[in-house]
Structure formats: structure tokens, C-alpha cells
Amino acid sequence: MTNAGVHEKGTFNAQDAIDNIKKDPEYHKAGAISLFIGVVRGETLDSEKDKVEKLTIEAYEEKADQVLAKISNDLEQKPGIVNVQIHHLLGEFNVGDDLVYVAVAGAHRTDVFPVLREAVERYKSEAPVFKKEHITNKKGSANEYWISEKHSR
């Protein structure tokens, strides 16, 4: 059981993250599981007129696995937290496809919600995961470009 990492599209899903939590020997201490699923948005943040056709997600995989595991392990040390899962998918994605799963199990919902948010913010700023948007602008011209997670907030 791994609590974090990058995976090729189609090899990991939200249920896998939840199943990993339920296999944790400390799961009996959990009273809540919260799940964040990041999906491909159909428009860019820069312009509502630009339509996202698809995304390509790549990563420096070995480092991304290390960073995601460190974030998960750090957050599992917080009071009331039982397990933290962060799994980012790699490959080509269409609008609406799942990109990332972040799941947090804890004793109470008040423990879980702030840690879920922190996990999402940290993976977005710390993990070496790279996103290329393939767009069509309002005039119908196609373009593609790499964007950083920091730019995409």
C-alpha cells in the first residue's frame, strides 16, 4: 500500500485511494474520510473565451513520488489524522477527466477538512508535476503551452 505518488492514467482511481485508507491498521480510529478529486476544467483561468480541449500531465516521477509521500507523511503527524493519500495521474486528459485524488481520514470532520485543504495546496506548490494546456481561442485557433501549478491558481 502506497499513500502517495504519480500513476499513469487508468492505473489508479478514487476507490483505490479509499481502499488504501481502509487497509491502514489504524483505520479503526477514523470517524471521517474526505476526498478531493481534481478534474480537467473546460476553460482557462486567463480567459473565459479560451476553450481547453485537453491536458497533458507529466512529472519528474521519482521526485514527485518523494514529494507527495513527504507531504502525506507530514500531514499524518497532525492531531486526529489517521491517513493521507495523494495520487496524481499522468498522461493525456479530456475535459471532465479526473487528474488527482487527495483523501484524508481522521477522527473527526473538524480534523479532516483543514488537512485536506493543506494537502491540496501543498501538492500544487511542491510536487514537480507539469501541465500542458491544449486550447482553442475565440477565433478558433489551436494553441498549446506548459503552465505551472502556481500560475493555474
Shape: elongated
User: Tell me about the biggest sheet?
Assistant: 7 strands, mixed
How are helices and strands ordered from N to C? EHEEHEEHEE
Q: What is the CATH architecture descriptor?
A: Alpha-Beta Complex
Total of DSSP H or I helical runs spanning 4+ residues: 3
Q: Helix/strand/pairing class, anyone?
A: alpha+beta
Q: Total domains, how many?
A: 1
CATH superfamily: Molybdopterin biosynthesis MoaE subunit
Strand content: 35-45%
Please identify the top-level CATH class. Alpha Beta
Q: Number of DSSP strands?
A: 7
The level of helicity is: 25-40%
Task: Write down the Rg.
Answer: 16 Å
CATH fold assignment: Aldehyde Oxidoreductase, domain 3
Distance between the termini: 31 Å
Uncertain regions: pLDDT < 50 for 5+ in a row? none
Structure write-up:
By secondary structure, this protein is an alpha+beta fold. It has a single domain, classed as Aldehyde Oxidoreductase, domain 3. 28% of the residues lie in helices and 39% in strands. The protein contains three helices and seven strands, in the order βαββαββαββ. Strands 1, 2, 3, 4, 5, 6 and 7 form a seven-stranded mixed β-sheet that branches. β6 and β7 form a beta hairpin. α2 runs antiparallel to α3. The longest helix has 18 residues.
Task: Summarize this structure as a short list of keywords or feature phrases.
28% helix, 7-stranded mixed beta sheet, 153 residues, alpha+beta, Aldehyde Oxidoreductase, domain 3
